[in-house]
Amino acid sequence: MLQIPTPPVPPSLPDAVIVGGGTQLESPAIVMIVLAVLVATTLVLWPLVRALARRLEGKGAAGAALQAEVEELRSRVHELEANQGRLFELEERLDFTERILTQKEPARLPDGR
Known about the structure:
By secondary structure, the protein is an all-alpha fold. Among the domains are: about 25-60; about 60-105. It has 2 helices and no strands.
């Protein structure tokens, strides 16, 4: 008969493993470190979170100024669109005048133009 060998048993771990030089922190020191990290994180992230919230709400300090500028630009565009028809009419009148002048007095224009 074939006998299958059994695998070796790994060695057991020691009860206490000390990592990092063997210094253990006491619980009040751990609590103080955790609190210090939380306070530092809060101080750094608080302004960023507030700015993001203002941007999401659309109530930034520059929101009113931007709104006023947008309204001013809209009114200017409206005025330009209103004058565009007038400009087209003036161009047509100028073309008509040029055609009339060239038909009546072709000899007065220099170089046959």
